[in-house]
Every structure is written in C-alpha cells, then in structure tokens.
Amino acid sequence: MLKEHSLITSDNFIAIANVLPEPMLLVDSEGEIVAINKAVTKMLGIASKNLQNAKLFDLVSESFDTVIQYLKACSRSRQMVLGCLTFDQHDRKTLICRSEGALIQPSSSSVKALIILRLKNRSLANNNFVLLNQKIEESMAEIALRQSEALLKQKAKDLEVTLDELRCTQSKLIQSEKMSALGKMVAGIAHEINNPVSFIYGNIIPATIYAQDLVRIIELYQKHYPYPVKEIETEIETVELEFLKEDFVKLLSSMQNGTQRIKEIVLSLRNFSRLDESEFKKVDIHQGIDSTLLILHNRLKLKPNHLEIEVIKEYSSLPKVDCYPGQLNQVFMNILANAIDALEDEVKKNQDFIPQIRISTELSGNNNIAIRIADNGSGIPSSIHSKIFDPFFTTKDVGRGTGLGLSISYQIIVDKHHGKLFCNSSSTEGTEFIIEIPIN
Q1: In Å, what is the CA distance from 411 to each residue of 328, 330, 408, 415?
Q2: Angle of the 325-349 helix axis to the 126-224 helix axis, nearest 10
Q3: Rounded mean pLDDT of 140-145?
Q4: Residue 266's closest CA among 179, 192, 328?
Q5: Mind spelling out the 3-state secondary structure of the chain?
Q6: Domains of the chain and CATH, by start
Q7: What mean pLDDT comes out for the span 314-341?
Q8: pTM for this structure?
Q9: How many CB atoms lie within 10 A of CB 187?
Q10: What pLDDT digit, counting tens, does each position of 294-316 carry?
Q11: Would 175 disulfide with which of 29, 125, 282, 408, CB 3.0-4.6 Å?
C-alpha cells in the first residue's frame, strides 16, 4: 500500500487486485502511483517499497507528455481507454504492454481523480485476458455498489435527523410565539384593570366611613327632632330611609368584597404570565396551579348545556421549588385544557356524566415533587399511548388542537427541569398525567 484516498482506498484496490494474476495499478491524474498489486512488482522485478512516491512516467519509456495525455484521456471516460506502455524491467530489459485505463473516482476539492490501469503482456492467451477483464469489472462494480449503498444510507440518516430537528424547532417557535403573545396580553389586561380597580378599592373605605357618619347624624336628628315637617316626612317615606340606612353600608361592603376579588384575579393573571419576575426562581407550585385554574374558570363553571366541572384539590405541604414558573404554568395550562376538552366530549355523549378533575401534589423521593392531574373521562386508547408526546400528533378535530401542547410540555419538564412527564390512562379510570421535577 502506498497511499489512501477518501472514497477508493488502496485497501479496496489491493483486496481485489491481489487475487488477480493480471498486473494492475491505481494512479492519479498527474501520474503519481497510489497503489499496485503483486503482479506488477513481479512483472517489473521491483520491490513495492522502491515504488513509493514514484511516478508512472518514471517506469516507462514513453515521454512525459505522452503519458499525461493518455491519463487525461482515461480520466474523461468510465470506459476502458486502450494504450501502449513500455516498461523498464530491473534487468534493463523492456516490456511492451497493452494498457487499459478508466476513471474510477472523479476529482474533487480534496482529492485528485483516480485511474485504474490494467496491463496486458501481449504474450498472454486471449481467452485468459477476457476472463481477467470480466473478473475486474465485476469486482469494481461490487465496490461501486457498496459505496453507493453506504452513501445513500448515510444521506437518509442525515435527512431524518434534520427533519426531526426542523419539526422540533418549528413546534418550539410556534408555541413560544403563542405563549409569548398570551403572556403579553394577560399582563397587559392585568395592568389595565389593576389601575382603576386600585383606585376604586382605595376610595371605598373612606366612602364607607363617610356613609356611617351620615347615618349617625341622621339618627341624631331623628332623636332630637322626632317630629319633622310634613315635606321631610313625605320624603323619608319615599326613599325608605330606614332601609336605606341599613342597606347603604352593606352595599359599600359588597363593593369592597368585589374589588378585592378583582385584585386577586389580577394578581393571579400576573402570576400566570410571570413577565415581571426573573426566569428561574423558587416558587410555590400551588400558586401556579391555582392561577391556571383561575384562567380556565370560565370553562369550568356551569353554563347552558354544560355541567360544572368539579375540581378536587389534594395539596400536600410542599417546599418552594426551583423552576421556570412561566413555563411550568404553560404545562399546567396544556394538561388542564386537554382534560376539560375530554370531559366536555364525555358530557355530550352522556348527559348523566358528572365531570371531575382531581389535582394532587406530594413529595416524591428525597428531592422531587410529584403533581398528578387526573380526569374521569373516557381515557386514551392504549394504541396511541406511545404517540401522545410526539409533535403535531392530535386526536382532536381540525381547529381544536395543533398537537403541540403535550410535546412542548414534555420538553419543558424533561429538558428544562430535568424531570419526568408520563401518562396513565384506561377506558374505565380516565386519564392521569404525572409531573415529577426536582425541588432544587
């Protein structure tokens, strides 16, 4: 062996050429000898080590230009190009050989073109020559076939990996844009609502005090002037003063409770969007679940032709968890929304069905927490359990789902939080998703 090139190697060449009695050389387009078989060294009587870094025109009597022109002709054809080369043997005798050369590897940016030369001593029998030609052609065809198969397999593998990466990237971009838009919208609404509500809430307390003062003054007038003039007495009966005194304070108290509820909703919206907080921090997982339930409250409550979905919370005492709270809320949103979809479908099929969602939390192991979100719907068929986390896979009708929710949720839990997300489902017990993430 003299050298090794990228596609056709001297190992490939020698493995085939050495089993053939016919002299064969592998040269590049500039005449440099890449490899030879034993028959050549035997014919010339020269050891292979003495042929290292040799040029073809160093071994023949023909001129440099003649040899180069012949090699150029061979490098332009896949068919054998006939020629005649006169070799100088070790005993200073000459040997005239018929040569046949053909291109077996085109040139590229990294390698030169490779040409195979078959040498035929004119004294050999013609039938042996035909047999050798056939063996060489079959061997070369087998090499080319193997190389083509390997190249096609590698390209197919590369394309499959690229396609998977493209689909995954696409799903991440779509979901990221979707959740970014949702987060900005929620944060904007929360901010706009918070300002006027804070103004109202802040003024209700002094308004209540003022009302109480006015009622007290009216009562003093009634005590010291029990017999008002006819006009005042008529107006007292018209406005129902006794009822007004009692109900006015209750009314202000009710308004205070309402504005307090709105402030809590605004806080939950801000907790869900998490735009005003650092990306990674310690948070109360229960707060994130409750905020998500509040966002979905409209889909859970009783409506015409829609039973109220009962939410059963079984929270354990948990420490605060290191996590990406905004992304974790996305996971809760995706799983809970899927559960609501499944329960709505079940209600349509069975009017007596009582829909429920059960959410439980617990410590799992030494440093993990587990969050279980289960519904009592019809469950997921076992035939598709292995596909539910695949990008773009969905069993919902067109327009109801994109097949990205669970895929993105899996990436958030497994890749971002180094946790686990898996599903237990049966036709009799509904569907349960289990989220496990480390506390620290």
Answers
A1: 11, 11, 5, 5
A2: 90
A3: 71
A4: 192
A5: CCCECCCCEHHHHHHHHCCCCCCEEEEECCCEEEEECHHHHHHHCCCHHHHCCCEHHHCECCCHHHHHHHHHHHHCCCCCEEEEEEEECCCCCEEEEEEEEEEEECCCCCCCCEEEEEEEECCCCHHHHHHHHHHHHHHHHHHHHHHHHHHHHHHHHHHHHHHHHHHHHHHHHHHHHHHHHHHHHHHHHHHHHHHHHHHHHHHHHHHHHHHHHHHHHHHHHHHHCCCCCHHHHHHHHHHCHHHHHHHHHHHHHHHHHHHHHHHHHHHHHHHHHCCCCCCCEEECHHHHHHHHHHHCHHHHCCECCECCCEEEEECCCCCCEEECHHHHHHHHHHHHHHHHHHHHHHHHHCCCCCCEEEEEEEEECCCEEEEEEEECCCCCCHHHHHHCCCCCCCCCCCCCCCCCHHHHHHHHHHHHCCCEEEEEEECCCEEEEEEEEECC
A6: 10-124 (3.30.450.20), 277-440 (3.30.565.10)
A7: 88
A8: 0.49
A9: 17
A10: 878 888 887 766 778 899 999 99
A11: 408
Name which residue leads in pLDDT, 177 or 281.
281
Query: If pLDDT is split at 50, 70 and 90, which confidence band does 360 have?
Result: very high
Cα dist from 288 to 88, 280, 285, 322, 334, whole Å: 89, 14, 5, 13, 13
Using CA atoms, how far apart are residues 378 and 429, in angstroms rounded to an integer?
A: 7
Report how far residue 151's alpha carbon sits from residue 162's, in angstroms, rounded to the nearest whole number: 16
Average of per-residue pLDDT across 319-336: 87
Find the Cα–Cα–Cα–Cα dihedral 372, 377, 381, 382, rounded to 10°: 30
Digit-coded pLDDT (tens) for 178-203: 666 666 666 667 767 777 888 787 88
Residue in this structure with the two tokens 């402030």, named with its chain if needed: 263
CA 355 to chain centre: 33
Q: Which of 80-94, 288-302, 408-422 has the lowest mean pLDDT?
A: 80-94
Distance, CA of 231 to CA of 225 (rounded, Å): 14
Residue 396: the pLDDT is 65
Return the amino acid letter for 24: M
pLDDT above 50: residue 123: no
Q: How far apart are the first and last CA of the chain?
A: 59
Residue with more model confidence, 287 or 142: 287
Give residue 281's pLDDT. 81
Cα distance between residue 304 and residue 298, in whole Å: 12
For residue 372, the model assigns a pLDDT of 94
